[in-house]
Recover the amino acids of this structure.
């Protein structure tokens, strides 16, 4: 009787471990889009490095999302930096006054809105 009980417990535990390994993060789809954007960049901007470091922190202990973890490592290799170098660069970026939303190194927009103002 004891053996049957312990066997059921171990079966439950095995199933639980499988479930934990296959979890999807609630922000998976948003993060997948960010990673896909980063994979298309040859040279990362300061905000790209910060995004990469942030995603490493989010997923480092997360059980699952192995494709994201693999792509994060691919980005390090593609950009030719180690995890330690990434962390060092990001600390330096923050120490130099970076704040979220302050993307001076990225130009966004088409210039369409300024063309109208110049003609009036």
């Amino acid at each position: 009787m004891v053996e049957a009980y312990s066997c059921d417990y171990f079966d439950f535990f095995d199933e639980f471990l499988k479930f934990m390994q296959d979890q999807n993060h609630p922000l998976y789809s948003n993060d997948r889009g960010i990673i896909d954007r980063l994979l298309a960049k040859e040279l990362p901007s300061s905000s790209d490095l910060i995004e990469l470091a942030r995603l490493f922190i989010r997923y480092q202990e997360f059980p699952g999302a192995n494709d994201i973890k693999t792509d994060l490592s691919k980005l390090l290799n593609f950009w030719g930096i180690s995890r330690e170098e990434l962390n060092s660069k990001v600390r330096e970026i923050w120490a130099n006054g970076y704040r979220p939303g302050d993307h001076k190194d990225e130009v966004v927009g088409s210039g369409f809105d300024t063309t109208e103002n110049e003609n009036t």
DSSP finds six helices and no strands in the chain.
